[in-house]
Every structure is written in C-alpha cells, then in structure tokens.
Write a structure and sequence with these properties.
Layout lengths: L1 H54 L2 H10 L2
Length: 69
Amino acid sequence: MDDVAFKRDRLQAALGKLRERLAQLKDQEENARRQAAYDKAKAVRDELAEEISSFCPKAHRTACARRHQ
C-alpha cells in the first residue's frame, strides 16, 4: 500500500505543477491576444493621425491646440 500512496502523492504533485503551467500558458495566450488587439488599434490610430495631420494645416492645428488647453 505504501507504493500506491507514494504514486498517488507523486501524481498529485505533478497535477499541481501541470495546473500551474496551464495557468501560465493561458495567461500568455491572453497577453498575446491583447497585444495583437493593441497593435491593430495603434496602427489604425497612427493612420488616422497621419490623415489628420495631412488634412489640417499646421496653423489650424496650433490654434486648435491652444483652444483645448
């Protein structure tokens, strides 16, 4: 019976480590998903900022900035 108890204890220890690793991997996947969404939003933001800066003359941008201070 000691052999069975020993195996059970080892399996329980392994299970704990596997659960911890699974949680780490899930966190990494979630971080990767969020990073991809952030990168996509940032690219759109940068495109819109470029469009606005080419559309709006510098003097107008300066005046707008002063009004919003």
